[in-house]
Amino acid sequence: MNQKSNLRIVLFIIGLIICVQTNGQTYLGAGYAGGIVQTPISSVDQAEGISISVIHEIQLGEGRWRFDPQLNAAFLFSQINREVSPFYTTRVSLSPNVAFQIIKQERFNFAPFTGLFASWGLTNGSFSYFDFSTLQTKNESINESSFNYGFEFGIAMNIKVKDKLTIKLVPLDFQAALNEENKGNFVKFTSSILFRI
């Protein structure tokens, strides 16, 4: 494991510790996930699946700003080339987002959010191709890891159903890559429902 990988893991763990130790409200939930994944058989491939998210809300003072760090795990499978190149990808991302509460009421809250993200991925699968030298179809396996970073933005709504039940809806959450291998692509899109824990 190289020095850059070690640094990424340390920063990831520090982020998790900060999220857990800070006072605030924590939400846990799941939803739809879609994304763009690099594969050997095609430069990009569309993938979709499910995501699991933990969001820890920290109110910044008495105003409308809020710090919303998010930990997300997405489990994706190939869409475009499923017959030729079936694969499965697991992506884990940490996003220290900042939200601005446009509507801030006791039972309803509406806030767009934005920030940077760091994402780690592991892709497993296989792809088939025709070898003209042997006139046979061959299969090769995929086992690749990747790291992405970039810009994240979305919208979130908190609905307080009753005193001990608050639902958090995140209908839009986009992650756009800034690193060269994925630059310009949406690495991941999620839409989730979470519950306060």
- Number of DSSP helical runs: 1
What is the name of the CATH topology?
Answer: Porin
Largest sheet: 8 strands, antiparallel, barrel
Count of domain modules: 1
Account of the protein in words:
Helix content is 10%, strand content 68%. With 197 residues, the protein is mostly beta strands. It has one domain (3-196): Porin (Beta Barrel), CATH 2.40.160.20. An eight-stranded antiparallel beta barrel has the order 1-2-3-4-6-7-8-9. A hairpin with a 4-residue loop joins strand 6 (108-131) and strand 7. The two termini are 36 Å apart.
What is the fold's blueprint, element by element?
Blueprint lengths: L2 H19 L3 E13 L7 E15 L5 E14 L8 E14 L2 E2 L3 E24 L4 E27 L2 E13 L8 E11 L1
Antiparallel strand pairs: 1-2, 1-9, 2-3, 3-4, 4-6, 5-6, 6-7, 7-8, 8-9
Question: How is this structure best summarized?
Answer:
This protein is mainly beta. Helices cover 10% and strands 68% of the residues.
Descriptors for this entry?
197 residues, elongated, Porin, single chain, mainly beta, 68% strand
